[in-house]
Fold:
Amino acid sequence: MINLLIKDFRLMFGNKQSASQRIISGIFSVLFFVAFIVIEVFLFRTILKTIKDIKYASTAFLTVFLLITTIFITIGNLFQAKRLFFDAKDIEQLSNRPVSNTQIIMSKLLYLFLIHYATSLMFEYPLFVAYGLLANKMPMFYYLCLFYPVATFFFSMGVALLLVYPLWLFTKFIKRHFWLEMSVSLVLICGLTIVYSYVLDIFIKLVANNDLLSLFSQESINGFIKFQNYAFPVNFLVDIFFNKHARALFPYLCISLGVFALGLSVAIFAFGDVRNISSSTTVNQKERPYKSTSVTTALIKKEFSLIGKNSDFIFSYTGLLIAQPLLLYFVTKSMNTVLGSGTIQYFAKLVPGLVDYVDILLMMLFTVIINQGANSYITMEERTIKNMKTIPVPFGKQLFIKVAIPFGLSTVSLIVSCLVLWLTKTITLQLALFAFLISVVLLFVFQIISLWEELSIRHGKPRTSSMSTLFAYLLPIVYAVTAIILSYTGLPTAVTILGGLGVITVIGAVPVIIVFTRANDLFLSLEAIN
Amino acid sequence: MKKKNLLVLLMIPFLISTLTIVSVNITYDLVDVDISYIEWDYEDIVAYQITNELIPLKAKGVNQRHNEVSSGNNLVWTVANQDGSPDPYATIVKQGDNYFLKTLLEGDVTVTCSNQKGNVSRSFSCIVFKDGYISIRPAIANSRVGKVDETIYIGEYDFTPSGEKGNASFDIVVECRPASVISSLSQESIAISDTLTLDIDWADAQESQGAVRVIGSVNVDVANWNKQSPKANITVTSTIDTYKPGVLDFQIVRDGYNVYNYQQLLDCTNRSSEGKIAVLQVSFDSEHNYADYLATTTHQAKYQNVKCMGDLNGDGKADFALDNGTVVAVKTKYNHLYIDQWNKANPNSKISLDVLTGLYVQKDFYGNGHSINFHDLTYPSRGGTIVDGNATPPELADDDLFRGPKPFYTVGTPSGEGINLITIYGQDNSGMYARGNLVINDVSMQNCDNDGKPLSFLDTVGTVLDVDTDLDDNLEPDRDVKVVVQNCRLSNGKNVVRSFSSNLLLDNCMLSNAHNFLFFTGSNKFVQPDGNKTHSIISKEGTISTTLYDYLSKNGPANAILDDYLAAKYGEGHVFKDSVQMQNCLYGTNGKLNPNSIQAALTTNLAGQFKGEAEIKDCIMNTSGIAAIAMESLFNGPYLFNNSIPHTISGLFDFAGSFGLSAFNCSNISGTSYPVKVTLSGSTKFYDYKELNKIDLSGLVHEDISDFLSLFGSMTGNNSYNVTIDEIFPIKNLLNRYANQNGYKGENGQYKDKVNIPVVFYGGGANYSELTIDEGADLFNDSYIGLREDTVQSAQVNLLDRYMYLPKVSPIGLVQQLAQIDLDKNTLIKTVTIVTGYEPFEFVFVKGTDYYDDYLSKQPTNLLEQLKNNAK
Structure:
């Protein structure tokens, strides 16, 4: 059982990342978590302090916050369960081991429980602490709250297990149809972008315009109090844990255990079914008629195919490229609003180009981060590296096409982004041009360094991505900070921006020259995989 | 694809906007957050039978923005016999935190609930009965902020639905208990004044909780005012003697219009060319508070006593605009010579001469205790926040109408483009502008919500009440024309009441929460210096006979003298050998005007020629940013006579011109204000203790000196310049020394080390205004206030003394080279004095300890009760 559990942890957390990649990934996870908690607790405390004198309002808002986190955690549970139950390699490994289905299911459930508990505790316990401190709760309250995630597990996981098989079937279906996958991912990305923009807009209006408290009229608070009645299952749990109404315990247990039992049945059935299908079937490769095309066209088509299918379908590189102008617009606009409001205006006044530098930084970061979806030029090839090395096409041409396609796509997306920002008067034309130039130079350097790292992979070890990470994150941030400092000391904004462009070009020129001179050797030393 | 990285990126705007709110920790001196009103379910008249049981009393103190209230806001209950008889008809019993009413004897009592501080309270009338009673009350309840004047006023007229004049009518509720009383009532039971008729059908009576209620309609029709009394009365008497009769007394206001909604309020004020007498029957609150009221009220729409102050637009927001009468523009009568000259020279960026007001009142205004809250008109729509004691100042949105006072003079550009180094303020906008011979009675007005905001948040909300009795617009108050403001509560303004060139009686009012002053007075009329008149003025060559035009010209002696003053240059090679000579030339030494000084040449002696009078009688002055009462005179520095000198300043603007910052030359725009006279009488009290270092002078002048210096500092690499308003007006240290020397600081726990400044004479020009304390006034006592031969002793703050000894600080090298001017931080600070003039400010203190121990501490703690007891 313990071995199974360890295997599941390896399956979910073990990956082919290098140490540096893991550290960076860890840093970003911590950053995300801290940022989320800061925002969550700030909002929650502010609201609670405003409405704490109104009867039932505190628990109503606690219910709303807990409901939102429960929904996110349930969605997380769903994707965890999908990966845990239906990973093809995992099923294949288990099929020839002397382990019963019950043991496998139990280990996976135990894993899911641990993950659910940890996640819930991380995102919900700060709310309990904030609530407890404001309501002067006794230590017993904080102890009892440790059991809250246990109580939510049955309902959340029940819902996740109920939906996991339909989700698996759906993803399996659309993965077989490229255009359908693209369409679905595009619709999802657009939908999420709109939701993001909507939430961001409200948040900025309320917080940056100092209007947060105006949200809470007696009428709206009454609305939240009424809403509490429909916020199942959180309203039951709030009744049990916060209002100490034991009468809510029995109906909650009945409903949540019922949903869990139902979900578990579906998951067990689906796991058995999928396990049988995996061990008994082989995938029929569809025969396609041979079509003669030019080498260049064939290489371009291959690269598009690799890029399009590279990542999880929802957030594919191409989907995000399309969403980039919108995302950049929303984020830049809101940042400009924030920097132009309240006391922060004072700092913006002290540093004349502060807003411009922040806008440029955002464009640089968005461009390279989204481009990271297509920078595994060699890794993506997997077993076809040997084909690359043996086909009678010059390596330069192959590598050029590999780099040029994502570079071209990202550049087009960047141009559209700059146009959107300029036409919506979010930034000036001059700033759009400067930002485009500086981002394009950074993008080019970043791609060349990524190529260098890809060509340097040896002995099946993971790619070392420290250099590309430095260029993707550190260089833009260092540039923005330096520019802000220089601007503070009185250097004109235009000089700072052009100087930054020059410095990035000079710094980037070094790896570019190295790659151009050593590309042949590196390509020849690539190891083919059978 | 690095999904996590993208997620972090997408969270950045949320995080930064949150952090900017959290990290802004400005040390504002927050005003206590008090409850704004008391919410309860009691009707205006309640009846309880004599019983041994305790009757629980329930009420809730509510802050308008639901903020956490400060200490001293717990509710306490009191009861008093209405007829003043010594044997109580009922008493209050306190058990733990709960209050109960215990009925004892048959009679009428007033039950009052207030916060411990006593600045908010509410009462209901209670009939203690043995067998039965009849009560009568208006169907629309009293104001929830309580009445000061117990008289109920009913206007002679109502507005008809089409806005025409119609005889007034209003509904009353007749309540009886036990239910059997109703059978003993008939038309003969009703005794009514001859100015009224009552439509009531006893058969419509409805029973509820043992009582029976009937709604009747009272119609007002006064046929002959000479023969009929404005006092009216309805009495309903049962044929059974043991049942107490019901009585409703009120007063009919001749030519008065009852106001039940915002449109009717406008019809009496802004939309009436000559004005109509308004009699409020409802309160007008902000859109936010009105929504709160609607969410909690149990009264049907017809009988709701709160309406929204403003027209609600489609989004449920209160809208105000100049073109529909919701706001009125009034041409400022304050000195606008500078604006005139600016507008003439800059026809494309003119500054309006109009100040705005929410209610333009020309006839009597009866509030009936109701409130008017101008929040949605006056407060910046990007409202400031206070979370955990951290304050974020409010910001004006582009379409906010109230944007602060008119400029009297700006060093720089007043129109918002370019540099605005210093702006001295002129007249401000107002919530209510009262013009005429009129009475304002028992209204509670505030320019914005009570939410514990720092007083500095009130910087752009304007004056609460601006009065004007200069009807012929000759800048003098008209003879026999006076505005009487009585029984009112006015709060939350930059200044609360402003009276310029007017006659005013403030009688039994409470003025609270002003950024600057609770009462601000002065004259619009002034005498300009005659530039061609010959004066004897000190110069390098000794005292010379010259005209101001010559002396203060570019080639005149003043150019070099003022340059030397700004640059602190005395001694060999300079105009004057020492600072004393310089002081004598500018103004004089030891706070005494030298007759041969520049200031003397700019001044006209107007002593005793009052152009406005105000009496403050039985008032409560509660919490100001600087002082309770300010008597202002125009700033009158040499720079206002000719701003093309001195070279230091003109050179600075020539240099700034290379950055696109324009300078504007104007001349002879100020002068000497005519004085006004203020009399304190009766039991006027000053609840205005504050720590001297927390006096907030930022509302006196607008200054961008800090920003200006940082602009140049960014070029030179020296960003260490930071100028505060306290450096520009270094008043606090001087006052502190004076207060310590004279024992003016409080020594008790609550008021320890705090000072109480009832009056300030303010303005850099000569101030001939007078403060008189009536001999019958409680304050007329040498142990409370410094008296010297029947005049009030004041502390002089001579800024010139201070400025003369300001050391030079590090020069801004590059600017100096480029502009060929000698510029430093202290030069810019001293610029203020050549604008304002050199006359000392004067502050009147009360003797902190004696005034509190022997006087204030012996007053009833319930401030509203104090007003009620004094109500006329």
